[in-house]
Amino acid sequence: MTPKPRTWKELPPGITAAHRALVTALREIRECSTRTQAEIARDAHQEPTTLSNHLNAGRIPEEPLLRDFYAVVEKDATGSGPLPHTLEFLLDLRTNAKKKHCACCSIGYPAMTASTQATPQQPASRSAMEPDLVQARHLRRRARRHDFPVPQEHAGVPVPRREGDRHPADTVELTWSETGVVARYLADGQKRDAGFLLWQAGTSYSAADLVLAVGSCRTAGLHDAAEAILINVAERTDRQAVLNIAAALNEAGRHDDVTFMLTAAMRADG
Fold first, then answer.
1. How far apart are CA 158 and CA 181, in angstroms?
2. CA distance readout (Å), 193 to 55, 139, 234
3. Burial of 33 (0-12, 13-18, 19+ CB in 10 A)
4. CA proximity to 2, closest of 61, 77, 87
5. Pick from 85, 195, 221, 75: which is nearest to 133 by CA?
6. CA distance linking residue 136 with residue 3, whole number of Å
């Protein structure tokens, strides 16, 4: 039986992008069970109010509770195909959401509190504050100087479609729903929250969604953001997925993005 879609409460506006991503993923997992929340909570060894708190951003679940919740829903969904997210992905999201903020944290974590502002820790360099965005600029400069040439015969992507069979890259509209959010975060100086969204896109999006995200950022003039996404794609351990994304970008006419991403992948491989 197909689970009935639920009507979820709106998430609190003050939570971080990392916490929002975790709760969204947890809700998508919960949708895969046809049973009541109370039944799921009972089998996952927690109170229904505890599970409700996790699913409404009241608090971040402890790892054992998250594992038990996932195991129960996975069992409920047996025969209906894989769950929308792996347990490992949820645990990574939880780690990001739980990590305490300091000035030299990786991107994507909670905003600085008043207590941390009283005794700020200065990062060793600007790239410690916004590594992917800075790396994007650095890689772009090196690519322009041809420090990392990518010969076409080794690029591993198909021959581009004929001009009449594809849309020009500059006609891409702002079809990625997070484009405005990223732009607002960057304008407000919230580079960690912006970076988390870019990391999530680069590490988990399908090839088709990646093309939309990168194209939308380019159209909005967010070139560093587009290249941060590509850098995160290049660091995926699934190299076939990287080639599939390169092929999708190539078919969309985004040849410069293919070169940039493969350049980043070559660097990631050492």
1. 33
2. 20, 22, 21
3. buried
4. 77
5. 195
6. 42
Token pair belonging to 236: 């995926």
* Cα gap 174→212, rounded to integer Å: 8
Buried b (16+ CB within 10 A) or exposed e, 242-269: bbbbbbbbbbbbbeebbbbbbbbbebee
Cα(213)–Cα(4) distance, integer angstroms: 29
Q: What is the pLDDT of residues 170-202, one digit of tens each?
A: 334 567 888 888 888 888 888 888 888 888 888
With the C-alpha atoms ordered 195, 199, 142, 208, is the resulting torsion angle positive or negative? negative
**Euclidean distance between CA atoms 39 and 111, whole angstroms:** 36
For residues 158-165, average pLDDT = 44
* Cα 85 to Cα 123, 148, 263, distances in angstroms: 33, 35, 29
What are 38's two structure tokens?
């109370």
pLDDT digits (tens, 9 = 90+) for 235-248: 888 888 889 999 99
Q: Indicate the residue type of 239.
A: R
In angstroms, what CA-CA distances link 127 with 75, 113, 134, 136, 193? 43, 21, 6, 10, 15
Provide CB contacts within 8 A for 249, sequence distance 6+: 157, 210, 211, 214, 255, 257, 258, 261
- CA-to-CA distance for 100 and 110, rounded, in angstroms? 7
The answer to whether 90 touches 70, Cβ cutoff 8 Å, is yes
The proportion of the chain whose per-residue pLDDT surpasses 70, expressed as a percent, equals 69
